[in-house]
Amino acid sequence: MTLEKTGEWHLGSGTWQVQDLADRNHGPQLVRTRLGHDIAPDLLPADIASLMQARAADGAAALYPPEFHYSPVNGTRLAAPPASGAPWVPPAGAYPVRQVTQGHVVGLRQTSVPLHLQDKAGFHAESEPAARIKLPPSGDYQFISAPFGTHANALLALNPEKGGLFAWLPASARWAPLHGVGGVFLAESNLPYAAWRAELHYNFNSRVFVATDAGLACVTPDLAALQYEVRYAGDGPAVGAPLTFQGLVWAPVQQGPGQVALVSLDANGQPGAPVLLNDAPPLFGMGAPVGYGRTAIWPCMTGQLVLQRKPDGGFAAQFFPWPAGLAPQFAFGSPYLAKDGDLWQLCFDSNNHSYAYVALGKPLPEIEPALGPRLSSGAMNYRFATKHHQAPWTEPEHGDDGATNAVVIPLLEVGPRSTIGIKLASTVAVAQTLASTDRLRFQLVWDDHDGETTFNTSVLPQPWTLRLFTHDGKVWAYHPELKDILGWNLAA
User: Fold this and answer.
1) Whose CA is closest to 141, among 115, 117, 167?
2) Within a 10 A sphere around the Cβ of 285, how many other Cβ atoms?
3) What are the E-state strand segments in 19-163?
4) Residue 52 counted as domain residue
5) Which of 64, 87, 113 is where one domain is finished?
6) H-run or E-run covering 41
7) Could you give phi then psi for residue 20, rounded to 5 degrees?
8) Are residues 59 and 101 in the same domain?
9) 43 and 185 fall within a common domain
């Protein structure tokens, strides 16, 4: 690669302007992104340097583009940037689109990579976080960490209800709004909290897939320009969250009365052929979708919208109503992932005034009665404050924890038999606790092979809506009523 000593350098990271290559105090400046957008004028050089991982030589103030390992002036080795770590797509850090295989179960509260708390032996209930980030503007946010036209993972805050998108500028320590290119903006979403999730295509210019009232949206943020591009699939509101299935991102879109189209986009945002379902009942009270093998499921209060891969390579959609008298209980967390790969949804049986688990995606109902509900993150489930990995309809052979007033609500599975959850005291049934809007005192607990580590105590309304995410080597906790986003260091 031959580069001029002055003028423009057209690199993979964007277009850089060089005034005088020999000037060791003023290095090349990024002037246009890889996508061809001008750099936002209010972006500080220090923010660009941090996000692009511009590299410096010892004793020089000049910074060079991330493609350079050695100084173009004298050949001095440039400082290596820190590793960005794995991306994060909310709400649970799922695999990026192109990393999902048929062996993966998609849509549970399971991170794609194991997480470990650094120096956890030193934590206690009143421990202070290692870092804080100020809250974005008023709203209720989800957080995404990935390269968005940047070499480092950038942090985005998405407000689904308002269609708002903000970028964290690390050097300025502020949130900056992103604007749609050409006046095309991200539409709002009315999906309930328990049903919302996103998908991510991980790349230098990563793409985010979200459900909106205008259909399935593919958003390509261009952070250094403080802009984004968005395109839509479907002719109506997306009534369920996106799910990666068979190499495509799918979401159900209401086309008209009684007609639902399962629309798809590939990782590049190109649409596929929709799969239509006519005479569909109303899809209300949605839960989060799940997928495994050749089946994807969008559960709702009326039943299951099921998408299946056919032997001829095509796709077919069906709707399976819940067995008579059974209603899903999405507030208790993810479906249970059985050892044979089947997924089981907790339901309330109004006929018997009890709970039961229903196998998902089965045309003929399979039901397992249960003595009580469990709080689930996928492979793990909690009976009050005790973690189990057996089927949730199986009662423990020894011990009785029914008299305890402690409850653990798992937020994430972060490794084999490892969870992060909230622990609180309650003297009422778990269902009543989950319906409460009172401010509750709770502890954040990391439960793994070493036992339970308490690392924070807070008081919040509905603390089970706390959002966890990873970014910059830390696990962060966000709630709209916290004063800051709180962060704790992760072990390498």
Assistant:
1) 167
2) 15
3) 29-32, 55-56, 63-64, 131-134, 142-146, 154-159
4) yes
5) 64
6) none
7) -155, 105
8) no
9) no
* Inside any domain, residue 340: yes
Place of tokens 């996103």: 198
Residue 95 · residue 88 · CB < 8 Å? no
CA distance linking residue 340 with residue 55, whole number of Å: 49
Q: Are 375 and 411 contacting, i.e. CB atoms less than 8 angstroms apart?
A: no
CA 337 and chain centroid, separation:
19
Residues 152 and 34 in one domain: no
Q: Is residue 437 over pLDDT 80?
A: yes
Amino acid present at 225: A
Are the beta carbons of 35 and 149 closer than 8 angstroms?
yes
Percent of the chain as helix, strand, coil, to the nearest 5: 5, 45, 50
Q: Has residue 76 been placed in a domain?
A: no
Cross-strand partners of 327: 348
Alpha carbons 455 and 125: distance in angstroms, whole number: 5
DSSP state of 345: E
pLDDT at residue 1 is higher than 70: no
Token duo for residue 57: 């030589």
Q: Examine the pLDDT at 2 and tell me if it is beyond 90.
A: no
The pLDDT of residue 58 is 67
The answer to whether residues 32 and 110 belong to one domain is no
Nearest to 386 by CA among 410, 369, 364: 410
Dihedral sign computed on CA atoms, order 304, 219, 43, 20: positive
- Together in a domain, 22 and 155: no
Do 478 and 348 reside in the same domain of the chain?
Answer: yes
Instruction: Judge residue 293's burial from the number of C-beta atoms within 10 Å of its C-beta, 0-12 exposed, 13-18 middle, 19 or more buried.
Output: middle
87-116 pLDDT tens trace: 999 999 999 999 998 889 999 999 999 999
119 and 253 fall within a common domain:
yes
- The model's pTM is 0.95
Domain that holds residue 309: 97-489
State CA 442 to chain mean position distance: 23
What are the residues facing 55 on neighbouring strands? Answer: 64
Neighbours of 75 (CB within 10 A): 8
End-to-end CA distance of the chain: 35
What backbone torsions phi and psi does residue 97 show, to the nearest 5 degrees?
-50, -50
| CA-to-CA separations, 368 to 243, 291, 326, 458, in angstroms, rounded | 27, 21, 12, 37
Residue 402 has pLDDT above 90, yes or no: no
> Which residue is associated with the tokens 């008298």?
325
The number of domains in the chain is: 2
Whether residues 103 and 29 fall in one domain: no
| Distance, CA of 277 to CA of 354 (rounded, Å) | 33
Rounded Cα distance, 490 and 237, in Å: 39
Q: Where in 29-159 does DSSP place strands (E)?
A: 29-32, 55-56, 63-64, 131-134, 142-146, 154-159
Amino acid at 438: D
CATH number of the domain residue 336 falls in: 2.130.10
Tell me, yes or no, whether 266 lies in a domain.
yes
